[in-house]
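Run: sequence + alpha-D-galactopyranose -> complex structure.
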Amino acid sequence: MKIKKILVSVLCFLLVLFTAVGCSFTGNDDNGGNNNGGDGNGGNNVTESEYLGDIYSDYFSIGSTVSTYTLKKYAELYKHFNSVTAEYQMKWGRLESTEGVLTYGDADTLLDWAEANGKGVRGHCLLWYKSLPNWVRQKGNSKTACMQIIDKHVQETVEYFGDRVYCWDVVNEALKNSVSDYDLSSGNFYRTGNEVSGSGTMDWYAYCGVDYIRQAFKSAAEARDKLGLNELELYYNDYALNSPNKREACIRLVQALREEDIPIDGIGMQAHYKLPDYQASPETFLSNFEESVKQFTGLGLNVQITELDIRVYADSQAPAEFDALPHDLEVAQAEMYGGIMEICRKYATPWKEGAGAITNVTTWGVADDSSSWDNEYHKEYPQIFDTEHGYKEAYYKIIDF
Ligand code: GLA
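>> structure
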């Protein structure tokens, strides 16, 4: 009996010893045993060999952008993502630059690659005021003409890509750049006039009012029903939807669709953010972001963060030449990424009966070496991977939960 007791005690002691030794080998002790690297504040023992998509598999899919050019360039980094969005190869200007001549080749290349690599595809985007073929801008010179060409393009595109995409951004950026109190009270919060005046753009609203948005969703839903694509989700996608007035304008747009039983399944919050806007008051920034997610999902809509990136400089403060990303900015950017992702995880399941949820987070771009925000004077370092494709503080922060 006594011997048995001693044996059990020895075994217990050995077990404790082995566990302790084992643990000390799983991580880098420089950061307090936190295997995540980064600033070492806690962690879920994720190893760097795991990919973001897997780490987030209990929450939502994690996406990034692709083009035929980036496929090879970021082949390794793409292993982190289980969803992709075509940067521009599924926009109207690329699919039908000549009327009636449909050029799906590049989009098909992306979809073949995505399928071969087990990634879902967000369809982006069916209707926008930019990236249009010239013939559309010439032909769309009346409401009737606009409605007809929208209907044809949307139905044709949804049918062609079918179930190879899991959702579509049906309409992109139909709301004003920034919505004032006056815009809200007067109901004039749609993008039109001088906000649609750049070269290659089209003022759909001037010809059709909100009906062009209704038409696009109606046509998409019609094609979906025709093909029985029950899983395909239809999104309205825009930027600055974290701002209270633009959020409210977006809700009114959703209501305008619902009044006529036009289906809409979700809101795409682009989330092209600037670090100084967060630093001015992190609490305000995050609570506005959360409030938008809460209100949209509260309407029964799913939310996807469709174009997340965080520029470290306000444009006016940008340094005059290319230089390395200062460490304090990298850490602050990580904190902002971390705060956003924490809220996203919180809404990955419905917060009340009948609520939608966050079902995807996509970064716009992959690594800092090629960001669409860079110009010849300065870089913006908006991504979670650095210019050498290594992990940034932001990467470590978002897996730290
Ligand atoms: C918008 C569009 C994207 C892309 C970016 C520019 O956010 O939705 O498709 O063109 O602008 O980086």
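>> summary
The longest helix spans residues 2-26. The chain has a mean pLDDT of 89.
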